């Protein structure tokens, strides 16, 4: 459902800007969830209005607060960079023009963990603290994180989605939206599946056994 | 089909919302609440309690802001909410004490916001003072209970959903009219319904409020959410009462809310990027504004 009452009234947050601060926290939370909550190094690139006024709005501190798993109303936001650095997280910040197709409040984050594939995600803060995930790795995406969301990295192959949706049907999980994209035929693909309730861990581990799947991450609903 | 279809209370426009109100006999708050419950499969108490919590955070931010004496980190704001509140308590404040207190409350929330304090985005942080100031004043001056104020937040949300679907709330995308204009619009509707106005009157109040914020640009000094945002929240809380007064009096609303929202979106699209939260023009580029240069990030080294 587009726009909950709590998208209009809320979030409960630390100032000064819902798009540049609270939205930034949610961008960080999203990036953190996409790598299973572990971050050795994060490179953050700001686009548009984020690049022009982000420092004064604590957009950098907001994103890092999210990377640390802090909620939008956590008062540690103003010290988040120091806290992350103390924990050994490597951080870098810069700006770039990602192109006119992106919302003026957009950040691209690279997350690197030793021995794991690099994650690249592009997320826009669309106003009032709401976000849209518009890219994961090299795939365009378009979801809000307001529902429980499954992200599946897999190979393009016949019947793949049918196996996934069969498993979801067996556990009575209702699919709200589903989107699949591939790079080229038979090559890397990404599927985003939004469901009405979180799936138990054992369902996720069974999903990992489906042929041609690389990895699955379940994103918790954004608070 | 064997499964029963779950009724939807979703709508895209004010016309559709008013039709739903007529069809169900519910007010705007009732529709917004039913819509939430249908989507989340929860009883009405769950979203009502969550909204009450939001309202309490709003009240707390007003109280905290009235006590602020120090300047914000940027030194652009701080201490004015307290001055306005003190002025409201003098013998004969202009237009009465409620008037100055409404302004003080709008200031208070934004001063807290500028100091990394806790607020509720309604719909954004830069416009977070307007709805709380209006509802707190209603609670104090008209004996409207905390629970009814929380319910009025569903009226505000119910109207906000239409703006979100058809335009936007982001200053970077639509200018200040999308932030303060939207806040003032939803506050005016909430005041109207909380004071016994009909859903039509609430929509008219929203139309009056938004219509008279069209064209407001987002050019704050240094890009900080302070000048003019702090004073603008105080002023536009009053503006919401003006719009509600006009609607409750039955003043004729020639351009209905849906059309005003379309106009807001159109003006936002035509507004230059320099006046949309980039600090590249307007107040930010005046001699006094330039004393507080915007703080962004350096370009990525290739």
Overall number of strands of chain B: 1
| Domain count of chain A | 2
Determine the number of helices of chain A (DSSP H or I, runs of at least 4 residues). 7
Share of helix of chain B, binned? 55-70%
Most extensive interface between two protein chains, with residue counts: A-B, 51 and 67 residues
N- to C-terminal distance of chain B:
59 Å
The profile of the biggest β sheet of chain B is: none
CATH architecture of the largest domain in chain A: 2-Layer Sandwich
Distance between the termini of chain A: 16 Å
Query: What is the H level of CATH, i.e. the homologous superfamily of the largest domain in chain A?
Result: D-3-phosphoglycerate dehydrogenase, domain 3
Please work out how many helical segments of chain B DSSP would assign: 12
| Oligomer status | heterodimer
Q: Ranges of chain A with pLDDT <50 over ≥5 residues?
A: none
CATH-derived topology of the largest domain in chain A:
60s Ribosomal Protein L30, Chain: A
Q: What would you note in describing this structure?
A:
- The complex is a heterodimer of chains A (223) and B (302).
- Chain A is α+β, with helices and mostly antiparallel strands.
- Chain A has 2 domains: 5-137, D-3-phosphoglycerate dehydrogenase, domain 3 (60s Ribosomal Protein L30, Chain: A, 2-Layer Sandwich); 148-219, 2-Layer Sandwich (Alpha-Beta Plaits), CATH 3.30.70.260.
- In chain A, 27% of the residues lie in helices and 35% in strands.
- Chain A has 7 helices and 11 strands.
- Chain A is globular, with a radius of gyration of 17 Å.
- The two termini of chain A are 16 Å apart.
- Chain B is mainly alpha-helical and 302 residues long.
- The longest helix of chain B is centred in the first third of the chain and has 22 residues, at 45-66.
- The termini of chain B are far apart.
- The mean pLDDT of chain B is 96.
- The interface between A and B is large, with 51 and 67 residues.
- Strand 1 (12-14) of chain A pairs antiparallel with strand 1 of chain B.
């Amino acid at each position: 459902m587009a726009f909950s009452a709590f998208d209009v009234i809320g979030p409960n947050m630390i100032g000064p800007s819902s798009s540049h601060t609270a939205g930034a926290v949610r961008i960080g939370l999203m990036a953190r969830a996409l790598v299973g909550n572990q971050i050795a190094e994060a490179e953050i690139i700001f686009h548009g209005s984020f690049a022009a006024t982000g420092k004064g709005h604590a957009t950098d501190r907001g994103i890092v607060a999210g990377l640390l798993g802090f909620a939008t109303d956590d008062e540690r936001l103003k010290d988040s960079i120091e806290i992350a650095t103390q924990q050994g997280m490597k951080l870098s910040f810069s700006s770039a023009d990602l192109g006119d197709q992106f919302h003026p409040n957009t950040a691209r984050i690279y997350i690197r963990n030793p021995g794991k594939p690099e994650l690249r995600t592009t997320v826009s803060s669309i106003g009032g603290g709401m976000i849209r995930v518009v890219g994961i790795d090299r795939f365009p995406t378009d979801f809000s994180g307001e529902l429980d969301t499954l992200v599946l990295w897999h190979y393009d192959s016949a019947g793949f989605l049918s196996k996934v949706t069969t498993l979801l049907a067996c556990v009575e999980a209702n699919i709200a939206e589903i989107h699949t994209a591939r790079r080229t035929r038979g090559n890397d693909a990404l599927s985003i599946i939004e469901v009405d309730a979180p799936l138990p861990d054992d369902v996720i581990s069974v999903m990992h056994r489906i042929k041609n799947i690389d990895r699955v991450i379940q994103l918790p609903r954004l608070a | 089909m064997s499964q029963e279809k779950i009724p939807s209370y979703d709508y895209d426009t004010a016309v559709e919302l008013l039709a739903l109100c007529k069809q169900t006999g519910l007010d705007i708050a009732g529709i917004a609440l039913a819509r939430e419950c249908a989507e989340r499969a929860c009883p009405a108490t769950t979203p009502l309690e969550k909204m009450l919590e939001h309202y309490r955070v709003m009240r707390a931010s007003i109280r905290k802001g009235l006590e602020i004496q120090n300047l914000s980190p940027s030194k652009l704001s701080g201490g004015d909410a307290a001055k306005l509140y003190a002025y409201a308590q003098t013998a004969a404040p202009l237009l009465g004490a409620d008037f100055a207190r409404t302004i003080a409350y709008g200031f208070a929330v934004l001063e807290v916001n500028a100091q990394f304090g806790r607020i509720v985005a309604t719909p954004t942080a830069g416009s977070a003072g307007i709805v709380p100031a209006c509802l707190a004043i209603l609670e104090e001056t008209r004996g409207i209970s905390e629970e009814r104020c929380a319910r009025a937040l569903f009226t505000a949300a119910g109207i906000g959903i239409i703006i979100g679907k058809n335009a936007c709330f982001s200053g970077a995308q639509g200018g200040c009219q999308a932030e303060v204009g939207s806040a003032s619009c939803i506050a005016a509707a909430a005041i109207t319904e909380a004071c016994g106005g009909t859903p039509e009157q609430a929509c008219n109040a929203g139309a009056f409020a938004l219509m008279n914020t069209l064209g407001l640009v987002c050019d704050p000094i240094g890009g900080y959410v302070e000048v003019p945002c702090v004073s603008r929240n105080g002023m536009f809380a009053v503006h919401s009462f003006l719009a509600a007064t006009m609607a409750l009096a039955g003043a004729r609303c020639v351009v209905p809310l849906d059309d005003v929202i379309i106009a807001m979106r159109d003006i936002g699209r035509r507004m230059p990027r320099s006046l949309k939260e980039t600090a590249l023009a307007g107040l930010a580029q005046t001699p006094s504004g330039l004393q507080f240069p915007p703080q962004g990030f350096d370009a990525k080294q290739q």
